[in-house]
Amino acid sequence: MISLQDVTKQYPDGTVAVHDLTLEIDEGVICALVGPSGCGKTTTMRMINRLIEPTSGTIKVDGEDIKGLDVQQLRRRIGYVIQAAGLFPHYTVRRNVATVCRLLGWDKAKVASRVDEMLELVDLDPGKFGDRYPHQLSGGQQQRVGVARALAADPPVLLMDEPFGAVDPIARERLQDEFLALHARVRKTVVLVTHDIDEAVKLGDRIAVMRQGGYLEQFDRPAAVLGFPTSDFVADFVGSDRAVKRLRVSPIDVSALAETVPGGEGVLEVAADATLYDLLAAVLQSPVSTARVTPGGQAVRLGDIDALLRAAQA
Ligand code: ADP
Question: Between these two residues, 168 and 232, which has the higher pLDDT value?
């Protein structure tokens, strides 16, 4: 859906922000661009909707070279969510969400029903919030309005620039969970910029780790980046606790675990689609150090931590 081929961006002062970057992002995938401040993440993302023009290289969206497209037309196919939502302060919530639909010339009734649908999608009651102004919302609510606005015209691509950076950690966790649930319903191709490796691991189907000078260090699934960093830079960036982080993205391989046991006092239950991290938490919390995973009614025993370690190492 999005392809960057040998893309370089050098600013007029000589700074090379992005260096010969090649990246292919499949349809429906969430790709997290992650790396330290100044490594070229934002520049990369903004070249996709032509807020910034590359110095050289080719960018295609849905197979079309974006250089040949009208900029406005391109941007209507690409939703854009920025930090602190970037809502128009003098517009109501409804009007904010309606922005792109109005630009596209939709009739009033269609816009109104679409706005309600979008607000419900992001879990905001249109009757309660629709006529408020942005300053009458919490940071998290503003962010949800920003997402509703970006999705209103049903663009196939969504760009998100540090979308959850301006909200407190608890609200951020919730917004991230909500975003994943939303993405499961409306499968857009998403490019997400974040400096936070935990956010990248949680949200990304793919992670692109960049380093100063606009170099792409590694592009892979989160479990691969955490389990097999391809350079010292990546290993350092993802952190010395990467083995623990990796548990969060490792599904439970039931066949690798120990024998079947019935439930019992102190045995905690873990859902079959949970991760090794959830399993670890349950084993640590259980007074008998045992958790049951119950895929299709089967129970799996974890008498000690050894089985978990074997599963994590596998
Ligand atoms: P990130 O999003 O990873 O923090 P950016 O893409 O914003 O990084 O910036 C990459 C590099 O390009 C940085 O060194 C930054 O200082 C530089 N840069 C960004 N915008 C400009 C500009 N308009 N002119 C010159 N240099 C810029």
Answer: 232
Alpha carbons 28 and 185: distance in angstroms, whole number: 11
Nearest CA to ligand 1 atom 1: 38
Give the residue among 241, 304, 292 at the shortest CA–CA distance from 262: 292
What CA–CA distance (Å, rounded) separates 267 from 100?
A: 52
How large is the average pLDDT for residues 114-122?
A: 90
| Nearest atom within ligand 1 for CA of residue 214 | 10
pLDDT, tens only, 284-301: 888 877 788 876 655 555
Cα 218 from chain centre: 17
Substitution site in 43, 197, 215 for ligand 1 pocket (most atoms within 8 Å of beta carbon): 43
What pTM does this model have? 0.86
What's the start-to-end Cα distance of the chain, in Å?
Answer: 33
Question: Reduced to 3 states, what is the DSSP secondary structure of residue 163?
Answer: coil
